[in-house]
Amino acid sequence: MTPGAKNTTDTEDISWWWHSTDDFDFDTIGYAMPMVDGKKILVCGDCEFGPIGLRSPDAKEFWLAVERVGYADKPAPKGHKIVPRKAKKM
């Protein structure tokens, strides 16, 4: 990944990724037009900082670089029942 999405030869090694197959797992994620190795670049939907991750061409897989984003565990809204996800069969 290139820090700050600038045209440069500097790169950044990312060692830890969050992976998802559901784009609704993320809040305020945007997509930049340039593609890297056939994948769309993910950017912050609020400030357009990025790249923060990649999206597959078919929009079925998403990878976020843990080193480039923050995570805050928020309490569920009042009256909301938390239902754990079922493991997918392989």
Automatic annotation (TrEMBL):
Gene Ontology process terms (BP): post-Golgi vesicle-mediated transport; protein transport; small GTPase-mediated signal transduction
Protein keywords: Guanine-nucleotide releasing factor, Protein transport, Transport
Domain of life: Eukaryota
One GO CC term on file: membrane
InterPro entries noted in UniProt: Mss4, Mss4-like_sf, Mss4/transl-control_tumour
One Pfam family hit: Mss4
This protein's record includes keyword Transport: yes
Signal peptide: none
Gene Ontology terms, MF aspect: guanyl-nucleotide exchange factor activity; zinc ion binding
Keyword RNA-binding: no
Gene3D superfamilies given in the database record: Metal Binding Protein, Guanine Nucleotide Exchange Factor, Chain A
PANTHER family, sorted: GUANINE NUCLEOTIDE EXCHANGE FACTOR MSS4, MSS4-LIKE PROTEIN
Protein name in UniProt: Mss4 protein
Classification of source organism: Eukaryota, Metazoa, Ecdysozoa, Nematoda, Chromadorea
